[in-house]
Design a protein that fits this description.
Number of domains: 3
Order of helices and strands: HEEHHEEHEEHEHHHHHEHHEEEEHEHEEE
Radius of gyration: 26 Å
Strand order of the largest sheet: 1-5-6-12-11-10-7-9-8
CATH topology of the largest domain: BirA Bifunctional Protein, domain 2
Helix content: 25-40%
Largest sheet: 9 strands, mixed
CATH class of the largest domain: Alpha Beta
CATH architecture of the largest domain: 2-Layer Sandwich
Distance between the termini: 27 Å
Shape: elongated
Low-confidence stretches: none
Length: 388
């Protein structure tokens, strides 16, 4: 009952789990640093306009709002850090060439994204700015897979899509452009009857309806790309999207890959190229989501090619086996300078040393005390303890 005083979909994290989440945070940030990603830390709240994209209704609904007592302007509590990191790249760093940035921090959702979802996430991610080629996408997907494996996730699977296929079909028919969001929702749910009713109501062409219904059947392995070439309209944007998917699949031979060309959801709508999700047994939803989102920095004065990914460390940790207790050393409370030196040396070496206060009875689920410091003729020495 850790959340009995908390609003719905918010919870406390208790000691062993909190320690593991923090260890995962350090481990992944160190991993990203070895790949050349620099850490940035944007603020938790900003003016609402800085957190929003003009046409991103999903992100707007998920953002908590408040009034700045200094300026009287509306501020938002971030629901996603990608826009903030894009602002840093475009407006503050303003570097030429490729920039690699990583980040980690809490985000808050005004409403949960699903029945089993939390409203507070610890979002960690990595982004590459300034490279339009598929090589940057490959680097991000590989790093995302390495992230979950580094955390102990066994046999992750990769889902790929390119929303440019569906967008090309919509853009080819003027009757569908104003209802594009509805079309994408129906595609994602593979609602062929709903697509038929919508196309009839807006007066879409028959060939557009056939292409959209065909798109709902295009899922599976790499053969989906070949099937799509044969049965979808001969549009340059469709061919470009399929070429990007094929190149990416051929470069990622170390994980099971699935393609679903109708899946237009799973993101905040700013993606412009290949998108991906990583799944694994033990989690009800995607562990990682990412993809290409070129031009997101345009509102900050500098449109740049960009690709990246993010994940929630709290969700990642919750699906792992129970966190193990940390080994610790017990020491008595004493004013003996020799004991003080030994305890300090052990802690410098990375050991956990718990000095019991006078009259203290230890009761902790976090630590497994398997040694104690005792006084001997040779000074303070470690003595093993029986562990229950």
């Amino acid at each position: 009952m850790s959340n009995w005083l908390l609003p719905e979909n918010l919870s406390d994290i208790l000691p062993a789990e909190a320690r593991r989440i923090e260890e995962l945070r350090r481990q992944l940030l160190d991993l990203y640093r070895t790949h050349g990603f620099e850490l940035v830390a944007p603020p938790m709240v900003e003016y609402l306009d800085s957190l929003m994209l003009a046409d991103d209704e999903a992100l707007r609904l998920r953002t908590c709002k408040l009034v700045d007592q200094l300026s009287g302007l509306t501020m938002g509590v971030r629901a996603d850090m990608t826009v903030q990191v894009s602002r840093i790249d475009a407006h503050l760093l303003n570097r030429p060439g490729v920039t690699r940035l990583c980040y980690c921090g809490p985000v808050v959702h005004a409403r949960p994204s699903g029945l089993l979802s939390d409203r507070e996430l610890l979002q960690i991610g990595a982004e590459i700015f300034g490279h339009a080629g598929v090589q940057a996408d490959i680097e991000c997907v590989r790093l995302a897979l390495e992230s979950v494996r580094c955390a102990g996730v066994a046999q992750p699977s990769l889902d790929l899509n390119h929303p440019g296929v569906g967008r090309a079909l919509v853009d080819a028919d003027p009757a569908l452009i104003d209802v594009a969001d509805t079309v994408f929702d129906l595609l994602s749910s593979k609602d062929a009857p709903g697509l038929q009713l919508l196309c009839r109501d807006v007066g879409a062409r028959d060939d557009s309806l056939r292409a959209l219904k065909t798109l709902t059947t295009l899922y599976g392995g790499l053969d989906v790309v070949d099937r799509a070439r044969q049965c979808l309209p001969d549009l340059p944007a469709v061919h470009a999207a399929l070429d990007a998917l094929r190149t990416l699949c051929q470069a990622l031979s170390d994980a099971p890959v699935a393609i679903d060309l109708a899946d237009m959801g799973g993101s905040y709508g700013y993606h412009s190229g290949v998108v991906f999700s990583i799944y694994a047994a033990g989690w009800h939803d995607a562990l990682v989501r990412g993809g290409r989102y070129d031009g997101i920095g345009r509102k900050f004065g500098r449109a740049r090619p960009a690709t990246g990914f993010s994940l929630d460390l709290r969700k990642l940790s919750a699906g792992l086996p129970d966190a193990q207790r940390a080994r610790a050393i017990r020491a008595p409370w004493s004013d003996d300078p020799g004991l003080t030196r030994v305890v300090a040396d052990l802690r410098t070496q990375g050991h956990i040393v718990i000095q019991h206060l006078p009259g203290e009875q230890q009761q902790s689920d976090e630590f497994q005390v398997d040694q104690e410091l005792i006084s001997s003729d040779n000074g303070w020495v470690l003595h093993p303890l029986a562990v229950a």
